[in-house]
Target: Polysaccharide export protein
Amino acid sequence: MTKVFLLLKSVIAAIFLLNLLASCSSVGRTLPTATVYPAQTDTATAYNYLIGPGDTLNIFVWRNPEVSGSFIVRPDGKITTSLAEDIPASGKTPTQLARIIEERLSIYLREPIVSITIEDFVGPYSEQIRVIGEATEPSAVSYGKNMTLLDVMIAVGGLTDFADGNDAVLVRIENGKQKQYQLFIEDLIKYGDIKANVDLLPGDIIVIPEAWF
Model:
């Protein structure tokens, strides 16, 4: 009787585990795909730096040092200054944000003049270049004007020993759709083939696969 009971108990436990795994699998399939936020830059020549969460802003209000200072953009993309709270900052140029702050401060100050400089550059996620896969240091890289593939690969430390650099793919959002382009990173880095260097844009994703030996 004891053996039958233990066997029955094991069967029930196994059925419970299978149901749990099936439930987890079902939950996984219902997750929505990531929302696509295209970059606001179509060409390298049209690039303007956009403020993003994590940026440190130095806000100077002329003749009003008591309301000037350094402020960090919160994860929600907003900042709070000495006289104005919850100002949307992410996705705006420093000049655009300066005009917004001037309007907010005009409630308290007469004709405020605001200038903004950025101390730590991060930028919005939509404007960063992401490198994943077999890079030495896979990471998100803040875009700089006229940045190329070579610049980004230097920033991530190049390829690992297991990378298939000539089978890498660049994913870019164009007209709301994802497009893929082949990259020849190994030719560029190992053999100095400058023709393999290409211009990059904010929001680009570089995927470097592992080589099959």
